[in-house]
Design a protein that fits this description.
The chain is an all-alpha fold and 476 residues long. 75% of the residues lie in helices and 0% in strands.
């Protein structure tokens, strides 16, 4: 079903997020798929296994995330305690180490649940104590923190200015989301700040972003209603011809896709409803396709049986429309082509056998073998016996030339002459290979001296027989 395909695609996106380190985005998608599967009820084992695997990954990252918050803060506290117990000889390196730990701590507060009061107080007291060996650098680092705070204030001012300029005519939510992401990345580069500034700036930053976030939600709500309208239009499609229904659905689906996002929580459910609304159109198509698959199975089973007709089978194949790209259809075509090749080879084999014994058919009243061309049969029944061995030899050499067979050294001059005539287009006179070969065989039959072949004629016919094997597909 279309819905299951969408869920597989969502799980692939989640995996891409995990691989890119975007854990939260990946976990959100896995949770959305989980809700969709519960709503769907019964799903395929393949989808279930895929979801279970991704769910296990999500739980694994939850464990990692849990380790990276409070346990990670405890680890930072231990590092501060280690710096207090064994200060670095170089005060500047000590200051840089403390600076790095403060940055880690503040980034944890920015990207996850803030530290508890007890943890915060412990970290602050230890940090103050760790600073004591490098007091001379404190003012320098304080200057850095104050500078970072000012840069963050500029970012907040920039967001407020952006809101003021854009609020009269907001951009699309994709642009808004991109802007918020870019400003957040910039915000992260200006850390750490003074502890007293951190809380104040964080609050101001969140308040500055709020109108943009509100606008994003407003646009998502608008898109949600538009997509719901498209879904209702799909539900109203009721043409008798399933093809017309599918065409209308696909047009509406394109319109649906042109609408912007409706929120990550809403999208999976909307896709599910949209696809379920169209399932009824594809059921009719699926039924026709199933009927065609049965026809294909029957045709494949009949190949080579008594009464089997290649032309009739091809006529039936042309009527198939829903399964032309299916493996079964392609296999049937391959089998039919192989059978045709086999039939053609059998015909060629019969012809080769018939033509190999032409001299034995001389002067018969009737020749029953229908594999031999009519004019040649007529010549065999009433040969002229002109007795021109040179013409026979020239015809045999020409056959060898057509077949790519080397002629005896004694006949090289004849071969060169015929080759030149072919290049000048005098010999062929626009005839195809089969017509040329028929003319050469008539020359041989009519220029024999008698019904019983002479020794030279027998040698020439043996050479002709060898050439005929390679010219089998051109036999008239």
């Amino acid at each position: 079903m279309e819905t299951h395909k969408i869920l597989f695609e969502s799980l692939e996106k989640a995996e891409q997020h995990f691989e890119a380190g975007e854990i939260r985005n990946g976990q959100k998608i896995v949770n959305e798929v989980s809700r969709s599967i519960r709503a769907e009820g019964k799903v395929s084992n393949k989808l279930r296994h895929r979801f279970n695997f991704m769910s296990a990954q999500s739980r694994y990252f939850n464990d990692i995330s849990s380790f990276a918050t409070n346990p990670k803060r405890n680890e930072i506290i231990k590092e501060i305690e280690a710096l207090i117990a064994a200060p670095i000889d170089n005060p500047k390196k000590q200051a840089n180490a403390i600076h790095g730990l403060q940055t880690k701590w503040q980034q944890l507060d920015q990207t996850s649940k803030p530290a508890g009061r007890e943890q915060w107080e412990t970290f602050k007291q230890l940090t103050d104590k760790a600073w004591e060996p490098c007091a001379q650098y404190y003012e320098e680092l304080k200057t850095v923190k104050v500078s970072n705070a000012k840069e963050r204030e500029k970012i907040i001012e920039g967001i407020l200015k952006y809101t003021e300029e854009k609020s009269s005519r907001w951009p699309g939510l994709i642009e808004l989301s991109k802007y918020l992401s870019q400003t957040f990345q910039l915000w992260q580069t200006f850390a750490p700040v003074m502890d007293d500034d951190f809380i104040k700036l964080k609050s101001a930053y969140q308040n500055a972003r709020k109108p943009i976030n509100d606008q994003i939600r407003e646009q998502e709500t608008k898109n949600l209603k538009l997509k719901e309208t498209v879904i209702e239009q799909v539900k109203l499609i009721n043409d008798e011809d399933s093809k017309v229904c599918i065409q209308k659905y696909q047009k509406l689906k394109r319109a649906y896709q042109d609408i912007g996002p409706a929120g990550k929580k809403n999208e999976p459910n909307l896709w599910k409803i949209l696809n379920e609304s169209a399932d009824r159109f594809y059921e009719a198509e699926k039924s026709i396709a199933n009927d065609e698959l049965k026809i294909i199975e029957s045709l494949a089973a009949d190949i080579g049986k008594d009464g089997f007709s290649i032309s009739k089978t091809k006529d039936q194949i042309r009527e198939l429309s829903k399964t032309r790209k299916s493996p079964e259809f392609l296999k049937l075509q391959k089998s039919l082509k192989a059978f045709e090749g086999q039939q053609a080879q059998e015909i060629i084999s019969k012809k080769i056998t018939s033509y190999q014994d032409l001299p034995a058919l001389l002067e018969l009243d009737t020749i029953e073998n229908t594999s031999i061309e009519k004019e040649i049969v007529k010549a065999l029944i009433k040969p002229t016996y002109s007795g021109d061995v040179d013409k026979i030899k020239e015809a045999v050499v020409m056959m060898e030339l057509m077949a790519g067979v080397d002629c005896p050294a004694a006949d090289k001059a004849i071969k060169q002459k015929l080759t030149l005539e072919m290049l000048q287009n005098k010999f062929s006179q626009g005839l195809n290979e089969s017509e040329k070969l028929k003319g050469l065989l008539l020359v041989i039959i009519n220029n024999l001296k008698a019904k019983k072949l002479s020794a030279p004629e027998s040698k020439l016919w043996k050479r002709a027989q060898i050439a005929l094997n390679d010219l089998a597909k051109h036999l008239p």
